[in-house]
Amino acid sequence: MRSVKSKLFTGFAVVIFVILLLLAITSIELFSFEQENKALASLEELGDDITLFIEEERDSKVKNINRYVEIQNHLVIILKGREVLFSNQTNHKTEKILSKIKREHYYDYDDHDDGDGDDDRYHDERHYNDFIEENFFQIENLLILQETIKKRHTLYRIYLGVDEDILDKDTDDIAFGILTLVFVIYIIIVLLGYFLINKTIKPLRIILEEVKSLQGANDLSQRVKESKTNDEFEELTNSFNLMLGNIEKS
């Protein structure tokens, strides 16, 4: 037969485990969401810087834009018309990324104004399954921001990307830290819970031992020692002693 203490402790430990696990999962999900939002915000900020640079500087400087603009670990590809003006990736990787964009992202445009006064034609039809928000899309493990600007009747397209593997690694590191912290907190709480439950149940165990000793004594004049706990255990002791007194009188 399981004791009251073991039942209380098991229930307490399970409840605390579930609560801490839910808190850990929620914290990890919120951190992952925040990481993605920060990544998108950093891409937008970088896009603004590059757009401003292209508008103000000559193409010769744009070809070496990494000397003037802090690119960090982002993917950056700048197209002037159909020409790759700048890329911080290898030629092979640049062509691979652009081919995937062209395959899934149909566009049609004229590089220059035809002189009829109309704006350059630019048709943009997205076929991506995973759009994060406007101007953002995903190709494999890359979150990509696309920007387009027109300068002197020429269309420039900018592709900025961040590798999701980097975000996932940061999330995994944080998740490990959170789970480790949760485990330590769980152990501490369980130990404190065991101590408190044991202290709370101790008067009941004393009453039980007193009752067992009275059963073996066969002496109705004996009484259970009063417990000054000011709770239900003291009330139980007084009620039991009153019952013994009534039995003795009868």
Structure characterization notes:
- By secondary structure, the protein is an alpha+beta fold.
- The chain has five helices and seven strands; from the N terminus they run ααββαβββββαα.
- The strands form two sheets. A five-stranded antiparallel sheet has the order 2-1-7-6-5, sandwiched between helices.
- The longest helix has 54 residues, at 164-217.
- The radius of gyration is 36 Å and the shape is rod-shaped.
- It starts with a helix and ends with a helix.
Main sheet: which strands, in order across? 2-1-7-6-5
Q: How far do the termini sit from each other?
A: 35 Å
Q: Taking Cα atoms only, what radius of gyration do you get, to the nearest Å?
A: 36 Å
Strand and helix order: HHEEHEEEEEHH
Which word captures the global form? rod-shaped
**Structural class, please?**
alpha+beta
Q: How many distinct beta strands?
A: 7
Q: How many helices in DSSP terms?
A: 5
Give a short summary of the structure:
This protein is of the alpha+beta class and 250 residues long. The protein is built from 5 helices and 7 strands; from the N terminus they run ααββαβββββαα.
